[in-house]
Write a structure and sequence with these properties.
Layout lengths: L3 H15 E4 L2 E12 L5 E6 L12 H5 L5 E3 L1 H15 L3 E6 L6 H14 L5 E6 L2 H5 L1 H7 L6 E6 L5 H8 L6 H13 L3 E6 L6 H15 L7 E3 L6 H7 L8 E4 L4 E4 L1 H14 L1
Parallel strand pairs: 3-5, 5-6, 6-7, 7-8, 8-9
Antiparallel strand pairs: 1-2, 2-3, 2-4, 10-11
Cofactor: [4Fe-4S] cluster
InterPro entries: Aldolase_TIM (IPR013785), rSAM (IPR007197), rSAM_sf (IPR058240)
Pathway: Cofactor biosynthesis; Fe-Mo cofactor biosynthesis
């Protein structure tokens, strides 16, 4: 099974594919910029390239094509995000898609450019799986100068080591680095959100995670939590077919409603049979 050394090598390889230095400026590949309804409306830049390959990832195909997208400077990224945000009256800008903490120099340079160009109420959300930030506290410290407008959203891949392994195909012990990232971020005085894929967590694993977060973060841990319901895009269901991973409830984008129990089973049967 894939372990920590493998993940580090994958991350280094992806960085070489999706980033380029021009003098001291770090360019990164982006495949699109868009408006989103999340956070009450937000401007999003979707980066190319990730160090994980989660079964339910909605952009896995893009992240597999590492030479796709367009190389952009931090200033170009900030200009595009601010244009979308101000045109739509949004106050939230964010990086999503792949893993933004790869090519970390680019991320810091984006934040530095935004610091000088943002309006007072504009907020930046950095969405990450947390592996890099769990491994390297020194990188978290580099984010501290931007804490007045930065929120780091750590997307947990399950509620336990077992969940993590089933979702990512990686050794379950690496789940600890996601939890460590949350600790590092909060102890550094940076705002943090913790996204939990409740669709794929059992009651037991969810309860154990809540207890662990309470012990590590304190009584206000509930303020950081963001329940995440799996969206059953056909491409996501096809990737999950035959992998033994099935949500107990999820959002069906076709019927536009929450599916539970037998509804989920029937949806998987229908989509997976088309793949056979």
């Amino acid at each position: 099974m894939i372990g920590l050394d493998d993940i580090l090598r994958i991350g280094e390889w992806v960085e070489k594919e999706v980033c380029l230095y021009e003098n001291d400026v770090c360019l990164r590949r982006y495949y699109r910029f868009r408006s989103s309804r999340h956070y009450g409306g937000s401007a999003v830049g979707d980066v190319v390239g990730c160090n994980l390959s989660c079964l339910y990832c909605w952009c896995w195909r893009i992240n597999s094509a590492h030479r796709g997208g367009t190389l952009l400077s931090p200033e170009e990224v900030v200009t595009e995000l601010l244009s979308i945000a101000r045109h739509n009256g949004y106050r939230v800008l964010r990086l999503s898609g792949g893993e933004p903490t790869l090519c970390f120099d680019h991320t810091v340079q984006v934040l530095e450019a935004l610091k000088h160009l943002r309006h007072r109420k504009e907020v930046f959300v950095l969405e990450t799986n947390g592996i890099v930030l769990g491994l390297r506290r020194d990188l978290v410290s580099m984010l501290r100068p931007y804490s007045s407008f930065l929120v780091v959203r750590v997307s947990l891949k399950g509620c336990s080591e077992g969940d993590f392994s089933r979702i990512t195909g990686i050794e379950g012990s690496l789940f600890r680095y996601q939890i460590k990232a949350v600790e590092n971020i909060i102890s550094s005085g940076i705002s943090c959100r913790v996204a939990i894929p409740v669709s794929l967590c059992s009651r037991e694993s969810a309860a154990e995670l809540m207890e662990e977060l309470s012990n590590k973060i304190g009584g206000r841990f509930i303020d950081f939590l963001e329940p995440e319901v799996l969206v059953l895009y056909p491409s996501v269901v096809r990737r999950m077919c035959g992998k033994g991973l099935k949500p107990w409830m999820a959002f069906d984008p076709v019927s536009k409603k929450i599916a539970k129990g037998e509804e989920v089973v029937e949806l998987f049967k229908r989509v997976c049979s088309q793949q056979d």
